[in-house]
Amino acid sequence: MSIICDHVNFTYSRGTADEIQALKDISFSIGDGEFVGIIGATGSGKSTLIQHLNGLLKATSGHIYINGEDIYDRDYSLKELRNKVGLVFQYPEHQLFEETVLRDVCFGPKNQGLSNTEAEMRAYEALQSVNLMEDCYDVSPFDLSGGQKRRAAIAGVLAMKPEILILDEPTAGLDPEGREEILNLLKTLHDEQNITVMLVSHSMEDMADYAERLLVMDKGRIIMNGNPRDVFLNAELLEKTGLSVPQVTYILRELRQKGFDVDISATTVDEAADSIMRALGL
Amino acid sequence: MGIVEIDNIAYEYIRRDEEGNVEGIVRAVDGVSLDIKRGEFISILGGNGSGKSTLAKQINAILYPCEGSVYVDGKDTSVEENVWDVRQAAGMIFQNPDNQIIGSIVEEDVGFGPENMGIPTPEIIERVNEALKTLRMYDYRKHSPNRLSGGQKQRVAIAGVVAMHPKCIIMDEPTAMLDPMGRKEVIRAARALNDVEKVTIILITHYMEETIYSDRIIVMDKGKVVMSGDPKEIFSRIDELKRLRLGVPQATELAYELKRRGVRLGSGILSGKELVTQICRSYATM
After folding, report:
1. Cβ separation A259–B284 shorter than 8 A
2. What is the pLDDT averaged over residues B180-208?
């Protein structure tokens, strides 16, 4: 499913003294089945932007097209939009509320009007795809570990069968293994079910490992839009906006300064190792 | 005598059903002993649910051990009269800066702690200014906290603790919600407090690279301390760390990969700088 943002502007508290323009002339397009990362300092507008994509916030001006349809058209159904675009907020486990994990995951599909049996089938499927084992379906979601809770919450959104999945910092506060589990889950969903994934993250290393394309936001604008290798070549500009490049990219840049012929566009450990081996003639 | 002395403590969370019957007991901290020296910088690593936060909360008397004892600055935390002294000696910083800021102006927020301690106003002002300068937030003293970036807010929260002149600061994942620059600012601030002001720092984090300058790293699993040593020792045990749901700094991972492929490198590389220096030493003349 594709997303097009066309000159989108958004102002919070319009017409008051606290008026603040959070999105400025945002234009981009995302093709069906892409895996896109959004990076930007705190307050750069990332969360505001993704809330536009399932209609939680309405642009002050501009247009958003999901699969070619203008979501601001009078007869466009927002309910339909929210079925297609699943949004996972920061710390989604704070939204778990049901008595059992299974019932919590059923909540979304039931609200979509599915029968109990259908909703449960959806829930089973979703819980399985996030790798939660059956022995925890009947326990309270509050008895799960941090990483399990996070996955149960994501299952709640997956059970609604979104075609676009948007996640706001899904790995914040998880241990390294938990981070990897979530990211691998997203990669599998993307690779096997062709779900379009948009991911907000503060980890440049994770973005380098997983995203096919990066949107970089700064003060409400998109200042870069390209593949991670090209984006992370702009270390100085990224630092100026409160971001950084992956740690291995810094190492390569330093080696280049010392006269080694390394490729400073490498962003992952493997790419960096390849490049250093070549430069050392090994 | 250490600033924090933890002697064989255990902490149990008791789960009850609606009628109040005990359904289960989780031993979140299980037989931990730890002696933290004055001025030490300690990092605590461990997977989600390994007991790090439960341990930390017992150091400033938010929780009391079910078994064993915790002494902070020579005072037993489970004795009620000691609570205020303990909390003044050991300040705590949490993950979310927004939950820790209460003042509508930065300097008011930082002054809240010392004011509660009954310190005379002229001294409060002095302490607030000093704390804000230490955290490099003095220029923002008249600002409203809600217009600050995440890293700046977290530094205001730390200044609020610093203004109480603690001997020890416990930071429970202070960088989890911050962008890269914010993360650097907070870690730099923690190191400066430790280096310059000699404040003991206990840092809990899931970012391995934030711990490489610690004097000592403690690794927890299932409520127990399973590894303890300096960063070089700890991060040389990659396989064990991975089993404990942890990792190593990316520079260490790259060094490990290069060594595996035959590059001549020493052991114990933790930072990019060390890796670059070693590569230069071995190969620059070629």
Report:
1. yes
2. 94
Name the amino acid, one letter, at A219.
K
Mutate to test the interface with B, among A42, A169, A200, A264 (most CBs of B within 10 A): A42
Taking alpha carbons only, the member of A78, A62, A74, A36 closest to residue A228 is A36
Q: Which residues of B touch A22 (CB under 8 A)?
A: none
* Residues of chain A contacting residue B25, judged by C-beta atoms under 8 Å apart: none
Interface predicted TM-score of the whole assembly (ipTM), two decimals: 0.87
B107-156 pLDDT, tens digit per residue, is 999 999 999 999 999 999 999 999 999 988 999 999 999 878 888 899 99
- Whether the CB-CB separation of B94 and B178 falls below 8 Å is answered with no
Strand partners, B101: none
Q: From B273, which residue of chain A is nearest by alpha-carbon distance? A: A251
Q: Where are the alpha helices (DSSP H) in B12-142?
A: 52-59, 83-89, 106-116, 121-134
CB < 8 Å to A231, chain B: none
A23: closest CA among A10, A32, A14, A12? A10
Under 8 Å CB-to-CB from B237, ≥6 apart: which residues? B227
**Domain A3-227 is classified in which CATH homologous superfamily?**
P-loop containing nucleotide triphosphate hydrolases (3.40.50.300)
| Domains of chain B with CATH codes | 4-247 (3.40.50.300), 249-286 (no CATH)
Hey, are the CB atoms on A254 and B46 less than 8 Å from each other?
Answer: no
DSSP A86-134: EEE-SSGGGG--SSSHHHHHHHHHHHTT--HHHHHHHHHHHHHHTT--G
Domain ranges of chain A: 3-227
Give the C-alpha separation, A131 to A143, whole Å. Answer: 17
pLDDT by position in tens, chain A (length 282): 899 999 999 999 888 887 889 999 999 999 999 999 999 998 899 999 999 999 999 999 999 999 999 999 999 999 999 999 999 998 898 899 999 999 999 999 999 999 999 999 999 999 998 888 898 899 999 888 777 899 999 999 999 999 999 999 999 989 999 899 999 999 999 999 999 999 999 999 999 999 999 999 999 999 999 999 999 999 999 999 999 999 999 999 999 999 999 999 999 999 999 999 999 998
Report how far residue A46's alpha carbon sits from residue B9's, in angstroms, rounded to the nearest whole number: 44
